[in-house]
Amino acid sequence: MLSKTITKRITSLHLKKFRQQEQLFIAEGVKVVSELIAAGYFAEYLFTTAGTKQQFSAATLIDEAEMKRISALADASPVLAVFRIPKATSFKLDEITVVADGIRDPGNFGALIRLCDWFGVSQLLCAPDTVDLYNPKVVQASMGSMARVRVTYQDISNTIRTQPAPVYGAFMEGESVYNQVLETPCYLILGNEANGIRSETEESITKKISIPRYGKLQQTESLNVTTAAAIILAEMRRTSSGR
Amino acid sequence: MLSKTITKRITSLHLKKFRQQEQLFIAEGVKVVSELIAAGYFAEYLFTTAGTKQQFSAATLIDEAEMKRISALADASPVLAVFRIPKATSFKLDEITVVADGIRDPGNFGALIRLCDWFGVSQLLCAPDTVDLYNPKVVQASMGSMARVRVTYQDISNTIRTQPAPVYGAFMEGESVYNQVLETPCYLILGNEANGIRSETEESITKKISIPRYGKLQQTESLNVTTAAAIILAEMRRTSSGR
């Protein structure tokens, strides 16, 4: 049975403040937990319900009601781990650096990390107000890809100033992504869901690019930030590999 | 002031059961509500807080606490409308039909509708267990694009049998999307977030396609369903327009 102290300690990690204080975070779900263990993350606690006890033999068995109590998600998973937050690495210019200028939605941010991993982008630079990497919903949506993508939170403009490279940003009025070869190393800036790219970040951009819309009658004003990133990264990889 | 009866009637619409019973749904946010009004959706109720009263002059002014009480979202917007659900249209084979085989996440589904709109895909066929189009989070994530994309819920295999066309599905072991010209009219099947495309749906697929991953060392097993759809639709439109 889970003690009150442990239950309280784990549920406190639903909040960023306590994650930072304790340097711990929650990961839920068989795939995510397995991948993080395989990647060498250190599990402070590991809990499982009966169904996955065999797979996680070292885990503490708890019942579903207890799991529900410590879970940070709407639907509790059969396995939950509390991992130590690894030491932050410092930012170093890479082939492609994806830049998140204040993305707020955990699902979007997790999908973006997964997308970076898919396309071999190993670095994500985030404005300090971007959603926390260790938010349980981000951890879940990243599906383990967070183990392979370095995520740094620091001032965007300042970072670009000290480690310069071409800076691309997606805008409605930009030039079609299909009419140019994107250089590397480079930065690719993605804006916040509601407000797009901030004006102080926009000043760093050396080339505005856009994704052609299809059909003149469409009134869509923008794409979801992660879908836009998907199309641009796929195109960068397609042209660079001569497909 | 909002009466108890109205408050109760509106909050009941947070649930699919009551949306279907009353044939009403909630839309929140300035952009979404404006677009649906412009598209001719009939507002049964329209509420605004002081900040946007000028823009929605016909709306009933309520205070922020009241708005929070009726809102279905974690962060209430300054405007909320209750619209009548338009009459369902019947499915008719179109140039490209995107097929959702049981997508569950409202954010993913809303982003998919927005993506279809962007690429001029006017029809989305959904397995009956796909998340409800009128779920308030889907409405919000679709950003008004739901007014321009027909969404039908019915048996997928049966529909394809009666209105046949080439059927594409994204799989890890499929052929690269860059090595082929996708024919139209066609169906493009997207699977559920956790379980992918169901085996009974898979039987309808005439061609398995895949998105090339970059870098051999990556262990990512899949892309988020909406990002995968984004890359495939962008590629269909790029090749068909000779970009």
UniProtKB/TrEMBL annotation, chains A, B:
<dbReference type="GO" id="GO:0006396">
    <property type="term" value="P:RNA processing"/>
</dbReference>
<dbReference type="InterPro" id="IPR029028">
    <property type="entry name" value="Alpha/beta_knot_MTases"/>
</dbReference>
<feature type="domain" description="tRNA/rRNA methyltransferase SpoU type">
    <location>
        <begin position="96"/>
        <end position="233"/>
    </location>
</feature>
<dbReference type="InterPro" id="IPR001537">
    <property type="entry name" value="SpoU_MeTrfase"/>
</dbReference>
<dbReference type="GO" id="GO:0003723">
    <property type="term" value="F:RNA binding"/>
</dbReference>
<dbReference type="Pfam" id="PF00588">
    <property type="entry name" value="SpoU_methylase"/>
</dbReference>
<dbReference type="GO" id="GO:0032259">
    <property type="term" value="P:methylation"/>
</dbReference>
<comment type="similarity">
    <text>Belongs to the class IV-like SAM-binding methyltransferase superfamily. RNA methyltransferase TrmH family.</text>
</comment>
<dbReference type="InterPro" id="IPR051259">
    <property type="entry name" value="rRNA_Methyltransferase"/>
</dbReference>
<keyword id="KW-0808">Transferase</keyword>
<dbReference type="GO" id="GO:0008173">
    <property type="term" value="F:RNA methyltransferase activity"/>
</dbReference>
<protein>
    <submittedName>
        <fullName>RNA methyltransferase</fullName>
    </submittedName>
</protein>
<dbReference type="InterPro" id="IPR029026">
    <property type="entry name" value="tRNA_m1G_MTases_N"/>
</dbReference>
<keyword id="KW-0489">Methyltransferase</keyword>
<dbReference type="InterPro" id="IPR029064">
    <property type="entry name" value="Ribosomal_eL30-like_sf"/>
</dbReference>
<dbReference type="InterPro" id="IPR053888">
    <property type="entry name" value="MRM3-like_sub_bind"/>
</dbReference>
<feature type="domain" description="MRM3-like substrate binding">
    <location>
        <begin position="8"/>
        <end position="70"/>
    </location>
</feature>
<dbReference type="Pfam" id="PF22435">
    <property type="entry name" value="MRM3-like_sub_bind"/>
</dbReference>
